[in-house]
Amino acid sequence: MTFIDGRGYFVCKYCTAFHFPEHGKASSEGVKRLDEKSDRACPVCHLPLLEAVLEGNRVLYCERCRGILVNSAVFVDIIRIRRARYQGPVDRPLPLDKNALKRHIQCPACEGLMDVHPYYGPGNAVIDTCARCGLIWLDHGELGVIERAPGARPRPE
After folding, report:
1. Distance from C-alpha of 155 to C-alpha of 107, rounded to nearest angstrom
2. What is the mean pLDDT of the chain?
3. 131-142 pLDDT, tens per residue?
4. What is the DSSP letter of 111?
5. What string of DSSP letters covers 61-120?
6. Given 3-state DSSP classes, what are the helix, strand and coil percentages for the chain, each rounded to the nearest 5?
7. Span 17-76, pLDDT tens digits
8. What is the pLDDT of residues 114-156, one digit of tens each?
């Protein structure tokens, strides 16, 4: 299994099994599962995504890989809320994983290939987006990387 640096979990590159050592952190990044299956499948695990709530917004969540599918407008709101609330230390930026840019996953809505690119804000995260559907796929830990990035907090007025 390969450790995913900065995100605190392991993944097997052969069978895509995941292991999440808990270490006292919330394992789901604050996602509150509603345990209702959606009609969309996880682009990583291909299992049905669950309806969930994150920062008061509806999202879809994979209980196996702990990824999050979110509307891009909702994503902006979630990031704004989490950055404003975060009081902990900022993370030391890790180099961007260039191998993550080679991934090809299908959009759970239109089944077209999602665009894979660096998140264009604070934090070295690679996210998957579908411009056709206005959706963003976040792998487990990417939300935290964006939240804890240097320069992510709003400046006091």
Report:
1. 35
2. 84
3. 999 999 999 888
4. -
5. E-TTT--EEEEHHHHHHHHHHHHHH--SPPPPPPPP-GGGGG---B-TTT-SBPEEEE-S
6. 15, 30, 55
7. 666 666 444 445 788 888 799 999 999 999 999 999 999 999 999 988 899 999 999 999
8. 999 998 877 788 999 999 999 999 998 889 888 888 775 555 5
Cβ distance 45 to 16 under 8 Å?
yes
Segments making up each domain of the chain, as ranges:
27-147
Q: Other C-beta atoms within 10 Å of 132: how many? A: 12
Dihedral sign, CA of 65, 112, 5, 122? negative
**Separation between Cα atoms, residue 26 and residue 40, nearest integer Å:** 25
Q: How far apart are CA 114 and CA 20, in angstroms?
A: 25
State the amino acid at position 140 in one-letter form: H
The total of other beta-carbon atoms located within 10 Å of residue 148's CB is: 20
Amino acid identity, residue 37? Answer: K
Contact of 62 with 45, CB cutoff 8 Å:
yes
Cα separation values, 85 from 5, 12, 46, 62, 103, Å: 24, 34, 33, 25, 32
pLDDT over 70 (residue 11):
no
